[in-house]
Structure formats: C-alpha cells, structure tokens
Amino acid sequence: MLSVDEDLADDFIDTDLEKEEVQAVSQEEIKMRISPKGWERFRLPWFESIYAIIGNLGLSILASLVSLLYFAFKSEEDIERKLPGQNDCEVDAWYEFERFYYQQQNFSFIDALMVTAKEVARWSNGFDAVIADPVSGTEMMRKRGELPKNESERQEYAEKLVWWITNKARFANVFQLTFYNTFPETHHEVTPMFGYCAKTGNWDLYLTEDRFLRLKNAWQKSGLPEDLFYPRIKRVTPRVSGFKLFLSRVFPLVDQQPYLTPREAKASDVMRKGE
After folding, report:
1. Of the spans 71-85, 151-165, 227-241, which averages the highest pLDDT?
2. Cβ neighbours of residue 68 under 8 Å, at least 6 residues apart?
C-alpha cells in the first residue's frame, strides 16, 4: 500500500491539521495514479507499446505507398530505356507478338516461329528450349546450350529446334524457345533477344532497330505480315478513370488494365464504324 513519508512531511508542516490536509491530498494523488481517468489511462506502458507498434506499421505502409506511386507514374518511355539486362544485349525497343494474327484461322504460327527463330539465331550465342507438355511421358523436356559459331549453322540449328518442338510438344502453344545474346547467362536479368515471356503471356523481341528491320524483310519474303511484332509502346489502352486508373498506376506489373494490339484496335474501329 502506497503512503506518504511522514518524517519528510514533518520537516515542512508545523500543525497536525496541516499535516492531515497534506496527507489527504497526497492520498488523492495516489488514487489518481492507481485508477487513472480520461487520457491519463492511456499513459500506461501496455498502451504505449501498442501505439508504438501502430505508429511503426503506419510509417511502413506510408513508405510502401510512396514507393509504389513513384514507380507507377514512370512513363512507358522510361521503362523502354531501362530494360533489364540492357548492358548484356544492345536493345533499342521491346516488341510484342501481334496476337491478332494468332486468332486468324489461315495463320500458321509455326511458320512465323520458324522464320523468326532462324533470323534471330544469326545474332544469338545461346538458346533454351522447353516443352512443358510432351506428347509422350509426363516429364518436362528441355534443351539448352551454345549455338554454333557459324551464322548459317546457327540458322540450321534453330530450324532443327523448331521441328523438335513441333514433333515433341502435345500442343503448339505449350512450350518456350528463347535465344540469348550471351550464353551462359551472366545473371537472371539477362534480356533474351527472342522468347516467350511468362510474365506478359506473350512472345517478345528485344532488338535494335536495324535488326528489327532485317527481320521484317525476312517475314515479307516468307509471305508473313511485316507487322508480326509491334513496338510495345504502341499498345492501345482504353481510357479509364477513378479507382481503375489508380489501380493501373499503382500495380502496373499486374497488368490489370486490358489493352488492344494495333491490329486489334483497327479491327475494333472498323466494327464500330460498321455499326
């Protein structure tokens, strides 16, 4: 039980009456500390611990939001200039496969893959081919390694790879074929010159403008459309506002916002005008 030190009180108090009054006041103060009222009760140690935890958590969330917003408002051009592995492979632009053609019945994806792979193999040093669902067996099949030094031999090897995939894969779209400028890859961020990107769910090209023009000529000579791949910055995104715009900015890597390829956008305009 807490009490006032009587010897200490006697040094300052002469009469018994004054002593009793001081003792009464002191006891009242003690009661306040034992049974705090109002904001006084929030000064207890366990409340202070909770406030400290909430404060630290709030600061962490705020810092994360600031970081997300900073990267969300980076322009598409900034992304293009800072492609992963750019030091390992000279890159001018990021090109994506025009999926409009993939939806056409008379389009041969294998022919498009063959021509593209043979041309890109000329500038590549290594490859990685994966068949996720082979015709026979259940285990994944994989081939990877260096390409021949001779340019024509590289093209021949690329052709054999495509035929190997065609014969071994159960489905034409359940495989991956990647060509690298450097092999073995120096680190996980090496940019492939050509390959299927699981993140975007699309076939991508990372080439200089000069090499992309040569590839377009190869497509035309083989009877393929010259816009088989298009610069990624030419994606057509519908206008959004409000909360959807906020989500597309804060979480750009999730790819929540739908987009149209240039050919799909043209077809959509034609249909709209026809109505």
Report:
1. 151-165
2. 250, 251
* Sign of the alpha-carbon torsion through 79, 76, 214, 154: positive
Q: Which two tokens stand for residue 39?
A: 């904001």
Sign of the Cα torsion 88, 90, 92, 97 reads: negative
For 178-198, write each residue's pLDDT tens digit. 999 887 765 555 668 898 876
Sheet arrangement for strand 93-97: 141-146, 126-131, 175-180, 192-197, 202-207, 93-97, 229-231
Q: Which residues, other chains included, contact 172 with Cβ-Cβ below 8 Å and sequence gap of 6+?
A: 109, 110, 166
Contact 228, 114 (CB under 8 A): no
Q: Is it true that the peptide bond before 184 is cis, omega within 30 degrees of 0?
A: yes
C-alpha torsion 258→76→176→263, nearest 10: 50
Q: What is the mean pLDDT of residues 93-116?
A: 91
List, in sequence order, the alpha helices (H) in the chain: 6-10, 16-34, 45-72, 76-81, 99-102, 109-121, 151-168, 209-221, 243-250, 262-274
* Tens of pLDDT, residues 198-232: 666 789 999 999 999 999 999 999 999 999 999 98
